[in-house]
Amino acid sequence: MFSLFKQKRPIAGSVLYRGTMSPRAEEYAFLRKKGIEIDVSPGDDQAYWSMTLRHPKLGDAKVAAFRDMPPYPQWEIQMSQGLTAAEKEEFSAVGVGVTVFIENPVGHVLKDRKRLLCFLRWLMADDGLFVTDHTSTLIWPRESLDEELSHGADLDVSQIYCTHGVAGETESDPTWYHTHGLGEIGAFDFDVISPSEEVFGGRGDLDRAIAFASIEGLIKPGASFTCFEPGGEVMAVDAAEFDRRASPAHAAVRAMDDDSHQVNRVVLCDRNRGLLPFFSKRPRPSSALSSEIPESVAVQFSTPATELMSERARKTVGVFNTLRQEFEKYEFPAIAKICYPTQSGGNEHLWFSVHGIDGDTIDATLENEPFDIPGMKAGDRGRHPIEKLTDWAVLTPAGQISPRAGKAARLLRQNPDKLEQMLDAMRRSESGS
Fold first, then answer.
1. Which of the four pLDDT bands, split at 50, 70 and 90, describes residue 204?
2. Could you say which of 306, 355, 359, 422 has the lowest number of CB atoms within 10 Å?
3. Where do the domains of the chain lie?
4. pTM across the whole model
5. Span 3-155: which CATH code?
Protein backbone atom coordinates (compact mmCIF):
# COMPACT_ATOMS: atom_id res chain seq x y z
CA MET A 1 0.00 0.00 0.00
CA PHE A 2 2.75 2.45 0.95
CA SER A 3 5.32 1.46 -1.66
CA LEU A 4 6.57 5.06 -1.88
CA PHE A 5 7.86 4.76 1.69
CA LYS A 6 10.15 1.94 0.54
CA GLN A 7 12.81 3.71 -1.44
CA LYS A 8 16.53 4.22 -1.20
CA ARG A 9 17.33 7.83 -1.97
CA PRO A 10 20.23 9.84 -0.53
CA ILE A 11 18.87 12.30 2.00
CA ALA A 12 20.29 15.47 3.49
CA GLY A 13 19.67 18.12 6.09
CA SER A 14 21.43 21.01 7.77
CA VAL A 15 22.18 22.27 11.25
CA LEU A 16 21.75 26.04 11.38
CA TYR A 17 23.72 28.33 13.71
CA ARG A 18 23.62 32.00 14.56
CA GLY A 19 26.24 34.43 13.28
CA THR A 20 28.47 34.38 10.23
CA MET A 21 31.47 32.30 11.30
CA SER A 22 31.34 28.69 10.11
CA PRO A 23 32.06 26.03 12.78
CA ARG A 24 35.46 24.34 12.68
CA ALA A 25 35.76 20.57 12.27
CA GLU A 26 37.60 20.17 15.60
CA GLU A 27 34.61 21.61 17.45
CA TYR A 28 32.80 18.29 16.84
CA ALA A 29 35.39 16.15 18.66
CA PHE A 30 32.83 15.70 21.47
CA LEU A 31 30.94 13.27 19.21
CA ARG A 32 33.58 10.62 19.95
CA LYS A 33 32.16 10.39 23.48
CA LYS A 34 28.92 9.19 21.90
CA GLY A 35 30.74 6.29 20.26
CA ILE A 36 30.97 8.01 16.88
CA GLU A 37 34.13 7.64 14.78
CA ILE A 38 35.21 10.82 13.00
CA ASP A 39 37.30 10.97 9.83
CA VAL A 40 38.07 14.58 8.84
CA SER A 41 39.01 15.58 5.29
CA PRO A 42 40.69 18.86 4.30
CA GLY A 43 38.73 21.62 2.64
CA ASP A 44 38.47 22.45 -1.04
CA ASP A 45 36.94 25.10 -3.28
CA GLN A 46 33.41 24.19 -2.14
CA ALA A 47 33.80 23.43 1.57
CA TYR A 48 35.94 24.60 4.47
CA TRP A 49 36.11 20.97 5.58
CA SER A 50 34.20 17.71 5.42
CA MET A 51 34.11 14.61 7.57
CA THR A 52 32.60 11.15 7.78
CA LEU A 53 30.77 10.08 10.94
CA ARG A 54 30.43 6.37 11.70
CA HIS A 55 27.94 5.19 14.31
CA PRO A 56 27.77 1.50 15.32
CA LYS A 57 23.97 1.35 14.95
CA LEU A 58 22.98 4.17 12.62
CA GLY A 59 25.79 3.74 10.09
CA ASP A 60 27.63 6.49 8.23
CA ALA A 61 26.91 10.13 7.53
CA LYS A 62 28.95 12.72 5.68
CA VAL A 63 29.16 16.29 6.95
CA ALA A 64 30.35 19.39 5.07
CA ALA A 65 30.76 23.04 5.96
CA PHE A 66 30.15 24.71 2.60
CA ARG A 67 31.81 28.03 1.88
CA ASP A 68 28.83 29.69 0.22
CA MET A 69 25.72 28.78 2.16
CA PRO A 70 22.77 30.63 0.60
CA PRO A 71 20.60 32.56 3.08
CA TYR A 72 17.33 30.90 4.00
CA PRO A 73 14.46 32.82 2.41
CA GLN A 74 12.72 34.82 5.11
CA TRP A 75 9.42 34.74 3.21
CA GLU A 76 9.52 30.96 3.46
CA ILE A 77 9.99 31.18 7.23
CA GLN A 78 6.99 33.47 7.55
CA MET A 79 4.81 31.04 5.56
CA SER A 80 5.84 28.02 7.66
CA GLN A 81 2.93 26.53 9.60
CA GLY A 82 5.19 24.50 11.91
CA LEU A 83 6.91 27.39 13.69
CA THR A 84 5.63 29.65 16.43
CA ALA A 85 5.98 33.43 16.21
CA ALA A 86 8.90 33.32 18.67
CA GLU A 87 10.68 30.66 16.61
CA LYS A 88 10.22 32.65 13.41
CA GLU A 89 11.79 35.66 15.12
CA GLU A 90 14.69 33.54 16.42
CA PHE A 91 15.32 32.25 12.90
CA SER A 92 16.41 35.73 11.84
CA ALA A 93 19.68 35.09 13.74
CA VAL A 94 20.59 32.13 11.48
CA GLY A 95 23.67 32.84 9.38
CA VAL A 96 25.70 29.66 8.87
CA GLY A 97 25.29 25.92 8.93
CA VAL A 98 26.71 22.49 8.20
CA THR A 99 25.10 19.93 5.92
CA VAL A 100 24.64 16.22 6.63
CA PHE A 101 24.28 13.58 3.90
CA ILE A 102 23.13 10.01 4.43
CA GLU A 103 24.11 8.12 1.30
CA ASN A 104 23.22 4.57 2.37
CA PRO A 105 19.60 4.73 3.59
CA VAL A 106 17.96 1.53 4.85
CA GLY A 107 15.15 1.98 2.35
CA HIS A 108 12.19 3.31 4.34
CA VAL A 109 11.42 7.02 4.21
CA LEU A 110 9.99 7.28 7.76
CA LYS A 111 12.94 5.42 9.29
CA ASP A 112 15.67 7.05 7.21
CA ARG A 113 14.46 10.58 7.91
CA LYS A 114 14.50 9.84 11.65
CA ARG A 115 18.03 8.50 11.30
CA LEU A 116 18.97 11.79 9.63
CA LEU A 117 17.44 13.70 12.54
CA CYS A 118 19.60 11.76 15.00
CA PHE A 119 22.81 12.85 13.26
CA LEU A 120 21.56 16.42 12.97
CA ARG A 121 20.73 16.57 16.67
CA TRP A 122 24.16 15.28 17.68
CA LEU A 123 25.81 17.95 15.56
CA MET A 124 23.39 20.59 16.84
CA ALA A 125 24.62 20.09 20.44
CA ASP A 126 24.04 23.23 22.52
CA ASP A 127 24.90 25.80 19.86
CA GLY A 128 22.60 25.03 16.94
CA LEU A 129 19.33 26.92 16.57
CA PHE A 130 17.37 24.74 14.13
CA VAL A 131 17.77 21.77 11.83
CA THR A 132 16.20 21.37 8.41
CA ASP A 133 15.27 18.36 6.30
CA HIS A 134 16.19 19.30 2.74
CA THR A 135 13.70 16.99 1.04
CA SER A 136 10.64 18.18 2.92
CA THR A 137 12.06 21.67 3.70
CA LEU A 138 10.61 21.07 7.18
CA ILE A 139 12.27 23.10 9.95
CA TRP A 140 12.77 21.49 13.35
CA PRO A 141 13.21 23.69 16.47
CA ARG A 142 15.38 22.14 19.18
CA GLU A 143 12.45 21.46 21.50
CA SER A 144 10.46 19.70 18.81
CA LEU A 145 13.49 17.65 17.76
CA ASP A 146 14.23 16.53 21.32
CA GLU A 147 10.66 15.35 21.80
CA GLU A 148 10.73 13.38 18.55
CA LEU A 149 14.00 11.68 19.45
CA SER A 150 12.82 10.78 22.96
CA HIS A 151 10.96 7.72 21.66
CA GLY A 152 11.48 4.95 19.14
CA ALA A 153 8.48 5.50 16.85
CA ASP A 154 9.01 6.08 13.15
CA LEU A 155 8.22 9.56 11.89
CA ASP A 156 4.62 10.45 11.21
CA VAL A 157 3.63 11.15 7.61
CA SER A 158 3.20 14.85 8.50
CA GLN A 159 6.91 15.01 9.35
CA ILE A 160 8.08 14.25 5.81
CA TYR A 161 6.40 17.28 4.25
CA CYS A 162 5.86 20.89 5.28
CA THR A 163 2.87 23.18 4.91
CA HIS A 164 2.91 26.83 3.88
CA GLY A 165 0.18 29.40 4.20
CA VAL A 166 0.31 32.46 1.94
CA ALA A 167 -1.47 35.22 3.82
CA GLY A 168 -4.36 37.23 2.53
CA GLU A 169 -5.30 40.47 4.26
CA THR A 170 -4.09 39.02 7.58
CA GLU A 171 -1.76 36.12 8.43
CA SER A 172 -4.69 34.18 9.91
CA ASP A 173 -6.70 34.60 6.70
CA PRO A 174 -4.65 32.72 4.07
CA THR A 175 -5.50 32.66 0.40
CA TRP A 176 -3.29 29.69 -0.46
CA TYR A 177 -2.39 26.65 1.63
CA HIS A 178 0.03 24.11 0.14
CA THR A 179 2.55 21.39 0.87
CA HIS A 180 6.17 20.69 -0.08
CA GLY A 181 7.97 17.35 0.15
CA LEU A 182 5.43 14.85 -1.17
CA GLY A 183 6.39 15.43 -4.79
CA GLU A 184 10.02 14.72 -3.95
CA ILE A 185 9.23 11.13 -2.95
CA GLY A 186 7.10 10.40 -6.02
CA ALA A 187 3.65 11.46 -4.77
CA PHE A 188 1.86 14.76 -5.46
CA ASP A 189 1.96 17.88 -3.33
CA PHE A 190 -1.40 19.59 -3.05
CA ASP A 191 -2.77 23.14 -2.95
CA VAL A 192 -5.97 24.46 -1.38
CA ILE A 193 -7.17 27.88 -2.55
CA SER A 194 -8.90 30.03 0.11
CA PRO A 195 -8.79 27.26 2.74
CA SER A 196 -11.23 27.20 5.61
CA GLU A 197 -9.98 27.55 9.17
CA GLU A 198 -10.33 23.79 9.67
CA VAL A 199 -7.96 23.11 6.78
CA PHE A 200 -5.50 25.87 7.57
CA GLY A 201 -5.05 25.29 11.27
CA GLY A 202 -8.00 23.79 13.04
CA ARG A 203 -7.93 20.20 11.85
CA GLY A 204 -4.48 18.76 11.17
CA ASP A 205 -5.91 15.32 10.47
CA LEU A 206 -7.44 16.61 7.24
CA ASP A 207 -4.19 17.48 5.49
CA ARG A 208 -2.64 14.24 6.81
CA ALA A 209 -5.51 12.24 5.31
CA ILE A 210 -4.90 13.93 1.96
CA ALA A 211 -1.15 13.33 2.27
CA PHE A 212 -1.71 9.62 2.97
CA ALA A 213 -4.03 9.44 -0.05
CA SER A 214 -1.35 11.06 -2.20
CA ILE A 215 1.27 8.54 -1.07
CA GLU A 216 -1.21 5.71 -1.69
CA GLY A 217 -1.65 6.92 -5.29
CA LEU A 218 -5.22 8.20 -4.89
CA ILE A 219 -4.30 11.84 -5.45
CA LYS A 220 -3.14 12.44 -9.02
CA PRO A 221 -4.21 14.71 -11.89
CA GLY A 222 -7.80 14.05 -12.97
CA ALA A 223 -8.60 11.75 -10.03
CA SER A 224 -11.43 12.31 -7.56
CA PHE A 225 -11.01 11.61 -3.87
CA THR A 226 -13.23 11.82 -0.79
CA CYS A 227 -11.29 13.39 2.08
CA PHE A 228 -14.20 13.48 4.50
CA GLU A 229 -17.78 12.26 4.74
CA PRO A 230 -20.26 13.63 4.03
CA GLY A 231 -19.56 16.22 1.36
CA GLY A 232 -15.80 16.10 1.09
CA GLU A 233 -15.30 14.94 -2.48
CA VAL A 234 -12.60 16.80 -4.41
CA MET A 235 -10.89 16.48 -7.79
CA ALA A 236 -7.13 16.84 -8.27
CA VAL A 237 -6.13 19.14 -11.14
CA ASP A 238 -2.54 19.36 -12.35
CA ALA A 239 -1.10 22.65 -11.06
CA ALA A 240 0.15 23.89 -14.44
CA GLU A 241 -3.17 22.92 -16.03
CA PHE A 242 -5.02 24.81 -13.28
CA ASP A 243 -2.96 27.93 -13.95
CA ARG A 244 -3.78 27.75 -17.66
CA ARG A 245 -7.50 27.01 -17.41
CA ALA A 246 -8.77 28.48 -14.14
CA SER A 247 -10.22 31.95 -13.92
CA PRO A 248 -7.57 34.71 -13.84
CA ALA A 249 -8.55 35.53 -10.24
CA HIS A 250 -8.05 31.95 -9.06
CA ALA A 251 -4.83 31.44 -11.04
CA ALA A 252 -3.40 34.70 -9.68
CA VAL A 253 -3.52 33.31 -6.13
CA ARG A 254 -0.75 30.84 -7.02
CA ALA A 255 1.39 33.29 -8.98
CA MET A 256 5.09 32.73 -8.14
CA ASP A 257 8.32 33.58 -9.93
CA ASP A 258 9.68 30.02 -9.93
CA ASP A 259 8.53 26.53 -10.92
CA SER A 260 8.69 24.96 -7.46
CA HIS A 261 4.90 25.15 -7.30
CA GLN A 262 4.28 23.48 -10.66
CA VAL A 263 5.96 20.05 -10.78
CA ASN A 264 4.34 16.99 -9.14
CA ARG A 265 1.61 19.21 -7.72
CA VAL A 266 -2.18 19.32 -7.90
CA VAL A 267 -4.79 21.88 -6.92
CA LEU A 268 -7.80 20.43 -5.09
CA CYS A 269 -10.95 21.49 -6.92
CA ASP A 270 -14.67 20.82 -7.14
CA ARG A 271 -15.50 17.72 -9.09
CA ASN A 272 -16.97 18.64 -12.47
CA ARG A 273 -19.99 16.78 -13.77
CA GLY A 274 -21.07 15.84 -17.27
CA LEU A 275 -19.96 13.55 -20.10
CA LEU A 276 -16.47 15.04 -20.13
CA PRO A 277 -16.09 16.22 -16.55
CA PHE A 278 -12.44 17.26 -16.70
CA PHE A 279 -12.84 19.45 -19.78
CA SER A 280 -16.40 20.69 -19.38
CA LYS A 281 -15.69 23.67 -17.14
CA ARG A 282 -12.98 25.86 -15.77
CA PRO A 283 -11.47 24.16 -12.71
CA ARG A 284 -12.84 25.76 -9.56
CA PRO A 285 -11.06 25.53 -6.19
CA SER A 286 -12.73 23.09 -3.82
CA SER A 287 -15.75 24.66 -2.14
CA ALA A 288 -15.75 21.83 0.44
CA LEU A 289 -12.28 22.83 1.64
CA SER A 290 -13.10 26.55 1.54
CA SER A 291 -16.24 26.28 3.66
CA GLU A 292 -16.68 25.66 7.36
CA ILE A 293 -16.32 21.93 7.97
CA PRO A 294 -18.70 20.57 10.63
CA GLU A 295 -17.27 18.71 13.61
CA SER A 296 -19.49 15.76 12.79
CA VAL A 297 -17.75 14.85 9.52
CA ALA A 298 -15.55 11.74 9.36
CA VAL A 299 -12.06 12.28 7.94
CA GLN A 300 -11.18 9.36 5.65
CA PHE A 301 -8.11 7.20 6.35
CA SER A 302 -7.32 3.84 4.80
CA THR A 303 -6.81 0.81 7.06
CA PRO A 304 -3.00 0.80 6.51
CA ALA A 305 -2.84 4.51 7.36
CA THR A 306 -4.86 3.92 10.54
CA GLU A 307 -2.51 1.11 11.52
CA LEU A 308 0.53 3.36 11.06
CA MET A 309 -1.05 6.12 13.16
CA SER A 310 -2.05 3.63 15.86
CA GLU A 311 1.47 2.24 16.11
CA ARG A 312 2.89 5.74 16.57
CA ALA A 313 0.27 6.55 19.22
CA ARG A 314 1.27 3.48 21.24
CA LYS A 315 4.99 4.15 20.92
CA THR A 316 4.57 7.77 22.04
CA VAL A 317 2.35 7.08 25.04
CA GLY A 318 5.23 8.14 27.31
CA VAL A 319 5.25 11.55 25.62
CA PHE A 320 1.48 11.73 26.11
CA ASN A 321 1.79 11.00 29.82
CA THR A 322 4.51 13.64 30.27
CA LEU A 323 2.41 16.26 28.46
CA ARG A 324 -0.72 15.28 30.37
CA GLN A 325 1.10 15.80 33.66
CA GLU A 326 2.79 19.02 32.50
CA PHE A 327 -0.54 20.71 31.67
CA GLU A 328 -2.64 18.99 34.34
CA LYS A 329 -2.68 22.11 36.54
CA TYR A 330 -4.53 23.95 33.75
CA GLU A 331 -7.17 21.20 33.59
CA PHE A 332 -6.70 20.73 29.86
CA PRO A 333 -8.59 17.62 28.72
CA ALA A 334 -6.36 14.63 28.00
CA ILE A 335 -8.11 12.12 25.78
CA ALA A 336 -7.29 8.75 24.24
CA LYS A 337 -8.85 6.87 21.35
CA ILE A 338 -9.10 3.16 22.10
CA CYS A 339 -10.23 0.44 19.70
CA TYR A 340 -12.69 -2.30 20.71
CA PRO A 341 -14.29 -5.04 18.59
CA THR A 342 -17.97 -4.71 17.77
CA GLN A 343 -20.66 -7.35 18.04
CA SER A 344 -20.96 -7.49 14.24
CA GLY A 345 -17.27 -8.24 13.72
CA GLY A 346 -15.83 -4.77 13.05
CA ASN A 347 -14.09 -2.24 15.27
CA GLU A 348 -15.06 1.01 16.96
CA HIS A 349 -12.53 3.66 17.89
CA LEU A 350 -13.87 5.32 21.05
CA TRP A 351 -12.71 8.47 22.82
CA PHE A 352 -11.96 8.34 26.56
CA SER A 353 -11.01 11.01 29.11
CA VAL A 354 -7.71 9.93 30.67
CA HIS A 355 -7.19 10.02 34.44
CA GLY A 356 -3.85 8.25 34.57
CA ILE A 357 -1.41 5.91 32.85
CA ASP A 358 0.16 3.10 34.83
CA GLY A 359 2.34 0.45 33.26
CA ASP A 360 0.55 -1.01 30.28
CA THR A 361 -2.94 0.29 31.10
CA ILE A 362 -4.83 3.58 30.87
CA ASP A 363 -7.35 4.65 33.52
CA ALA A 364 -10.06 6.41 31.51
CA THR A 365 -13.77 7.24 31.23
CA LEU A 366 -15.68 6.59 28.01
CA GLU A 367 -16.98 9.83 26.49
CA ASN A 368 -19.03 8.71 23.48
CA GLU A 369 -21.79 6.11 23.22
CA PRO A 370 -20.72 2.95 21.35
CA PHE A 371 -22.86 1.89 18.39
CA ASP A 372 -22.28 -1.85 18.48
CA ILE A 373 -20.46 -2.86 21.67
CA PRO A 374 -22.78 -4.46 24.23
CA GLY A 375 -21.79 -3.84 27.82
CA MET A 376 -20.07 -0.49 27.20
CA LYS A 377 -21.73 2.88 27.60
CA ALA A 378 -20.71 6.53 27.90
CA GLY A 379 -19.60 7.37 31.43
CA ASP A 380 -18.02 3.97 32.15
CA ARG A 381 -14.65 4.23 33.88
CA GLY A 382 -12.07 1.50 33.83
CA ARG A 383 -8.57 0.38 32.85
CA HIS A 384 -7.81 -0.19 29.20
CA PRO A 385 -4.74 -1.86 27.65
CA ILE A 386 -2.29 0.42 25.86
CA GLU A 387 -2.08 -2.16 23.09
CA LYS A 388 -5.60 -1.04 22.05
CA LEU A 389 -4.64 2.66 21.91
CA THR A 390 -5.00 4.21 18.43
CA ASP A 391 -4.62 7.95 19.15
CA TRP A 392 -4.26 10.49 21.94
CA ALA A 393 -4.49 14.26 22.40
CA VAL A 394 -4.24 17.08 24.92
CA LEU A 395 -6.77 19.81 24.11
CA THR A 396 -5.51 23.34 24.77
CA PRO A 397 -6.54 26.92 23.92
CA ALA A 398 -3.53 27.04 21.56
CA GLY A 399 -4.62 23.95 19.65
CA GLN A 400 -4.42 20.20 19.93
CA ILE A 401 -1.26 18.37 21.03
CA SER A 402 -1.08 14.91 19.51
CA PRO A 403 1.40 12.17 18.47
CA ARG A 404 2.17 14.22 15.34
CA ALA A 405 1.75 17.83 16.47
CA GLY A 406 3.57 19.56 19.33
CA LYS A 407 3.48 23.20 18.21
CA ALA A 408 0.68 24.05 20.66
CA ALA A 409 2.78 22.83 23.60
CA ARG A 410 5.74 24.98 22.53
CA LEU A 411 3.44 27.97 22.04
CA LEU A 412 2.04 27.60 25.56
CA ARG A 413 5.51 27.26 27.10
CA GLN A 414 6.73 30.35 25.24
CA ASN A 415 3.76 32.48 26.39
CA PRO A 416 2.98 31.59 30.03
CA ASP A 417 1.67 35.06 30.88
CA LYS A 418 -0.72 35.10 27.92
CA LEU A 419 -1.89 31.62 28.86
CA GLU A 420 -2.72 32.72 32.41
CA GLN A 421 -4.58 35.78 31.10
CA MET A 422 -6.56 33.60 28.69
CA LEU A 423 -7.47 31.11 31.41
CA ASP A 424 -8.51 33.91 33.80
CA ALA A 425 -10.79 35.33 31.12
CA MET A 426 -12.32 31.90 30.51
CA ARG A 427 -12.94 31.37 34.23
CA ARG A 428 -14.62 34.76 34.57
CA SER A 429 -16.79 34.01 31.57
CA GLU A 430 -17.83 30.63 32.96
CA SER A 431 -18.66 32.10 36.37
CA GLY A 432 -20.68 34.92 34.81
CA SER A 433 -18.72 37.60 36.64
1. low
2. 359
3. 3-155, 162-299, 316-431
4. 0.90
5. 3.30.1400
